[in-house]
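One such shown below:

_____
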Amino acid sequence: MKSIVLMAIILILSACSNTGVIKMEKDKYMVSVKSAKVGFVNAAEEKAEAYKEANTFCQKQNKEVETINLELRDAGLAQSASATLEFKCVEVDKT
């Protein structure tokens, strides 16, 4: 019985994934967050996590995030919630 519970926990934890920031080309980056959530829930938490990572990455360069593309996929019956953010780090506008 303990092994079944342990396997279930491992499956749930492994279903949550995060790519971290990935360089795509020249000055474009991407981060993708996928949750283990299933059922009919939206991808708001995954969106927030993607922006959190992007902001942390850009702030280390004293820059801010500029969104190029954001794709959200809400969880469904056989689909988990996910967010994929493509972005640039741009100079902070001080005006």
